[in-house]
Every structure is written in C-alpha cells, then in structure tokens.
Amino acid sequence: MAAFQAPSMISSSSSAFLAHNSFSLSSSKLCLPRSRPCVLKCASAPTTETAHKTNVSRNTNMAKLQAGYLFPEIARRRSAHMLKYPDAKVISLGIGDTTEPIPDVITSAMSKRSHALSTIDGYSGYGAEQGEKQLRAAITSTYYGDLGIEETDVFVSDGAKCDISRLQMLFGSNVKMAVQDPSYPAYVDSSVIIGQTGQYQKEIEKFGDIEYMRCTPENGFFPDLSTTSKADIIFFCSPNNPTGAVASRDQLTQLVQFARDNGSIIVYDSAYGMYISDDSPRSIFEIPGAKEVAIEVSSFSKYAGFTGVRLGWTVVPKELLFSDGFPVAKDFNRIVCTCFNGASNIAQAGGLACLSPDGLKAMNDVINFYKENTALIVDTFTMLGFNVYGGKNAPYVWVHFPGRSSWDVFAEILEKTHLVTTPGSGFGPGGEGFIRVSSFGHRENVLEACRRLKQFYK
Amino acid sequence: MAAFQAPSMISSSSSAFLAHNSFSLSSSKLCLPRSRPCVLKCASAPTTETAHKTNVSRNTNMAKLQAGYLFPEIARRRSAHMLKYPDAKVISLGIGDTTEPIPDVITSAMSKRSHALSTIDGYSGYGAEQGEKQLRAAITSTYYGDLGIEETDVFVSDGAKCDISRLQMLFGSNVKMAVQDPSYPAYVDSSVIIGQTGQYQKEIEKFGDIEYMRCTPENGFFPDLSTTSKADIIFFCSPNNPTGAVASRDQLTQLVQFARDNGSIIVYDSAYGMYISDDSPRSIFEIPGAKEVAIEVSSFSKYAGFTGVRLGWTVVPKELLFSDGFPVAKDFNRIVCTCFNGASNIAQAGGLACLSPDGLKAMNDVINFYKENTALIVDTFTMLGFNVYGGKNAPYVWVHFPGRSSWDVFAEILEKTHLVTTPGSGFGPGGEGFIRVSSFGHRENVLEACRRLKQFYK
C-alpha cells in the first residue's frame, strides 16, 4: 500500500497526489510518511488516531495496481526537477502531449458552436450518447469509406483512453486479456481495475492472468503468435505506442486469423493511423474478416491536437458476436448510454470541421510537421550510434540502451540535459532498456533537444 | 436476452438500437425478431447461419440488465409517436433536458478558449486529469466556501453520470449498495454492470442484493432508516430526481449518522442543489461529520444548460477512509488518471465563467426561469385535482395517478396530448403510479402543455 501524502503536497500539482512506492528520493523530499499511524496523522482533519473509518473494504483490484499511472509520475519527476533547477529550460519529449496550435478552420467551428449555444435555434442539450449523426457519418466515410463499416457501428467518445475503460466494463472480470509488451499502460491498468488479472508478480514485473506478447527488435515488434496463449481480448496498437512500429498487412492478417482461430476479440488502437507513410493498414478493418473479430478505438488527439479538447471514437461492427450470438455492439451501446452521456457538443463540432476538406488538409499539415520532428530525433540518435526504432510511421522514437535501466536513462537524460523522455519500462517489462522519445514539440525545442543530446552523448 | 434489431432500424435513431422486452406493440412495429436464428439473420453480413461467433462469453452482469436505459427508451417511444402523428407538435417534458440558451457570458468564454487554442500561447494539450486548478478552486469557493472542503478534494468531470460509473469502478463488485426508490436509473444500472447485484427479480421489479429505500408521500420521500438494512454505499439524491423532494437538514443529519453508525459511504448527488429555495442543505457537507462518510457528485448540466457541453464535478474529501484506513480519494484519483483524461478544456473555460459574478447571476436567472415553469406545471396538476409533489426545490414535478400503471399514463398523455413525460416506474418500483414532469422547456411550450393537460384531464 502506498503511503498517503500530506495535503499541502497534494495541492501542489495533479501528479503529486500519486506516490510511487519505489522512489525513496522523491518520497523523502515530499515528506511521504510510510507507516500506518502516520497515514492518519497526515489527513488534514481530524488528526487524531480516532478518525472515523468507514467499514467499506478497499476494492482489492485497486490495491493490485502498482505505483502511479505512468504519465502523472513523469509529470511529478519533471516538477521535482524544476524545483531543483529553477533556471533550467526543461523540454518535454515525454508524455506524448501535442504542442502545436489547432488549425483555425477547426477552432472556428468550435467557437461558432459555442456562440450558437447562446441562441434559441443553436442551443442543444443532451445529444445522442453515441455521438452526433453527422460526425458519425463523417468518421465513417473518411476513415472506413470502403471497408463496410456503417455509421451506426461508430460510437463517438471523449477519447480512446476513456473508451478503453468502458470496453473493460463491457467485458467484465471473467475474460483474459493479451497485450503487446511493451504497451500503453491504460490497457493493463484498466484490466487490473476491472478484475481480470491476478496479483502483480514483482519478480517478473507482470500481472497474473495477462498474456504479455513480447515485441522486440528481434521479432520486428510483432509478437510470435505461435507461442502466444489464447486470450479472450487482445489489445493491439499500430502504429504502436510506445515502440513506433507499424504492423504490416501480412502481420495483421496473421493477427486476425489468430483471433478467428481462438475465438478472440481484438481491441485495435489506431490512434496514430494518420501517421502512417507507407501502405501499412490504417485500420484493422482493412483486413478481410476483421469485422467479426475486432473493435477499433481511435482519437482526434494526435491528429488535430485534441488532447485537451477530448474527442475520439470506437468502432464496434454489428458483425462482432459473443459466443452466444449476442452482438457486442448492443452491450457497448448500453454501456455508452448508462456510463457516458456523449462527448461535448463543442468538441464534436470541432471533429466535424477536422473531417472537412480544409480540416483534413490542416490536420495533415500538423502531422507532417510532427513527422519532420521525428526525423530530426531519429537522425540525432542514429548519428550518436544508438539503435533506433519506430519514428517512420509514428510520432514516437524508441531508443535502445542495452543493459541499462530505463528509469536510470530517463533520470540521466533529465539530470544532464533537462529533457523529459519516457522510460520504456513504464510500458511493461518488454520496454526495459529503452526510452520513448516523443516528437510532439515546437521545432526550436526539438532542435535544442537534439543539440543537447548530441552534446551529452557525443 | 433481448432480440437484435434489423440494422436499418438501428440507424434510424440512437435509441432505436435498444429493444425493450416488454413492448410488443413497438417491437412488432419495428420488426424485432425474437428467436435465436433470426438474431443471426438480422445481422447485416454475413447473413448465413455460419456467421463467425467469438468464443468470448457475454458479461453476465450486462445480461442482468433489464430493457433499455430509460431515457433512450422514451426517445424511441417519442420517435414512434412522431411517425404515427407527423403533424403533431410534440412537446417534451420528459427526459430533463435543458432548453434555454446558455448565457452569453458563459459561451463567450468557451468561444474565446476555442480561438485561443489556435495560438501558440493559448494552446494547451492534456490538462490535469482532475481538472484545471482555477476551476477546482472556483468550485470549492463557490459551493463549499465555509465547509472545510479543499480544492484538492474536487475532481472535475464530464458530468455526474460519468463519475457515477467511475465511482462504481472504484468500489468494485464486492460492495452492497442502497438506493432511494424511486431514483435516477444510472445508480442501479451501473451497480448491475459492475457486478454488485444479484439477478433481476421480476415479481418485485428489483435486483437482488440492492437495498431499495422506499420514498413515498407517506414518509415525505425520506426513507425509514430504522428499517433500512446496512449497505456499503448509499446513493442519495437531493433535491431528488425524480420526486423533486428535498431532504431537510434534520433528515440529512439522520442520514449522516446512519452512515457513520453502519460504516457506510454516502454518494450524494447534488445536481439540483441550486434549485433549492428554502434553507435545506445544498451540499451534504453542510452536515457535521459528513466529510468522513460522504462523496458528492454534481454538475453544471442543470445550472447552466451544460447537458450537451458536459461538465460536472465530484468531491471526495481526504477524510473519507476505507476500513483499512486507505483514503478513498487516492483510489478515485487513480481511477480518474487511468480511465479518464479530464473534461474538455473548452467546457472547463465555460465552467469557470459560470462561477464568475456575472455567470452566477446568469445561471440563477435561468434557474429562476425554469422554476417559474415548475410553478405553472404544479398549478395545472393541482387545479386538476391530482396529488402533486416536488416542484418547489427542484425542476421536477411528481404527479400521482393512484392505481394506474406509469407506462399507461405516459402512453395516454403522449397519445392524447402529444406531451412526453417520464413514467415513474422507470425510476424503480417505488415510482409506479407516478409520472415525472420536467419543467425544462420554452415558456410557450410549457403554457401550451398546461393548456393541453387542462383540456384532457378537465
């Protein structure tokens, strides 16, 4: 059990709320008490040993979770670094947060919708939980035009991360999931929360009852399916976060066949699909037979800088059936109606503008800008002699530091160059020895970051 | 298991996706097949008996849910009515959807924030999952100024409904909940989804392992706590949706003491707090000792017309502890960080404007407008000789039709007056014999609705 922090520290930043068991440096600095009695003393009021406790047991699944969610932990480390070096210009190539302004064609639409909400004719209250019809139609025609996906298969969300949790609620605790290792931490953490997993096994850094599909340079970051155990739900992200690898058509065909053979459901995360430069599939539904075995989650976050605006979507084809023949989409619809109330109507107006001809061009311009950043970062690490992966079809560069701890490399780079990266091991044990470098950043910052890296690692 | 609908019907409206087992009228009309083979035939493709089914079992908790979520079902009924009477002017006093434009002081702030996102200085990506610091501070000072709630106890959400599900994920499946009967259906349905309940018991219209706290005219819509079984989590809404009743300070003091005695956690829904005209508490935290036993969920939806904009908040005091002393807020923070990514930054700019002096005045003006509507509706039903409850401190009027089925009354009013209401039994068995009439509507519509009711029930 992680120790409770003093309230004054909790208020200092969002991420300071989260303790990370393994960092004694930060915990001593932040005055984190570790013993049970002190937990009570640190609560603001009442401060006595007789503070009322409820009789409600803590959810044992929550107690299984390890440390803080990765990205708040990085934010906390960054804040601590800035306290230590108040004059340093810290540059973040860390959490994958977009930095470039949203094109005006998109924000104008959101601004217009905002103003319209002050008029009798333009006001709208509750929208359809599944999203506005026009936006669902535009997503369908833009991304799934000739793939047999229908408008009613598309559910608009407030982001892929949020829908991943809603999908876990849909599946419940009696399924077994498989996940690429390394992978985006929300897959595993949401699986733990919903009760699909066993305890965390510290020695192997894995949760019980999850199938970790190792993705390494040796297998081209595509798992060896011949040695992969059967799972009910297979989370698969391509272009991959964090490795930046993209799965080829042939590989995805194997994956779909694997799912068909095992009766599995693939949850395919295509949040970076528009970063693909070659002819790799941008959607799992490009693979024949995928509609009967796959769900796809996606997002405007990394296409249009909507990380803060919050808009995404999930495709659940009506052909996807549980073992008893019941359509998965029908249960997902129920989840969306019961646990969600639709994405913000203003964000949806922005999404619709994204998919206009001008919006698509503007999104592509921003994506190309980030891809130029990626090339600069890839060139830098390559020049320095590192083995560098990803970067071609994704905004992430995956750099190998063989034999070293990711957190040590993260700390070294932060300490010596004031650059924030992401430790690969934060994405699972398969990420150990790597760091993820994000290419979201203003050009001058990326250039400066490359200069500092060249200086330090020369 | 509910039958699957033909895809063509699914696309016709968001709510048409949901079948309602008990409505043979609508199901015959909408061509809902009921037998298993037909389920497969109705899927769009492939249409053969050999369609691929996954081996993933449907979540048994999802299968426990009854019929559709209430409000989409009402929308479906309304759509069917409009097909039948294409020339009728249907007026909705049904789903509690706000109708009046959002005051300009609020939409201007959202518009400004939208535009700012197109500038280097004004752009922001991921915000704190817990919400922007300024907004958390404004919510704290506006609604909890002298109640000892701190800014860090406040978590900004995309609406109360969404946070109710996140709270259920936090609690997990091993708790027992209590709920007012009648109550807002999301409490019970989210409890079923997360696995806290037994099967639905058709004869008593209740789920197993939920404590239904009957609220009737006889007990002043406050449950008899002396006969209420102990529960871990007590959902309590005041001013109440649907009955419109508000709990007095004395009643809430009893409730807090009941929770303290039993070690329970109260989830207090104060989404209608600003509608209170008398000196009833607007927050559970006005009751001494509540911080150690209560969570409060609230929303801008009914204050500022944000039903489509999506913004709310939840207060989890750091004094609230699980039985092992672990702070509930710490687990909730983890849920928010893992399963959510913060409310839309544009909506948050609107929320901040709501809490400015001009915004507060504007919100109060809109609330007073709806309260005038409420008075018109109360007067109408009272004049017609009905027993009418609620309405004074809430935008809902709860009208008694003793001995009649709520759905029959709903259908009668819709058929004869083209008015959409909400059947009381949709909120639980305790709502049988009542209808809920919402006062959200343009004035001329409310006046017209009152005229039609007077005409029909004279």
From TrEMBL, chains A, B:
One of its GO terms (molecular function) is transaminase activity. Residues 89-453 form the Aminotransferase class I/classII large domain. Keywords: Aminotransferase, Pyridoxal phosphate, Transferase. It comes from the Eukaryota. One of its GO terms (biological process) is systemic acquired resistance, salicylic acid mediated signaling pathway. Transmembrane segments: none annotated. Its cofactor is pyridoxal 5'-phosphate. PANTHER family: AMINOTRANSFERASE (PTHR43144). Belongs to the class-I pyridoxal-phosphate-dependent aminotransferase family. LL-diaminopimelate aminotransferase subfamily. This is LOW QUALITY PROTEIN: probable LL-diaminopimelate aminotransferase, chloroplastic. It comes from Dioscorea cayennensis subsp. rotundata.
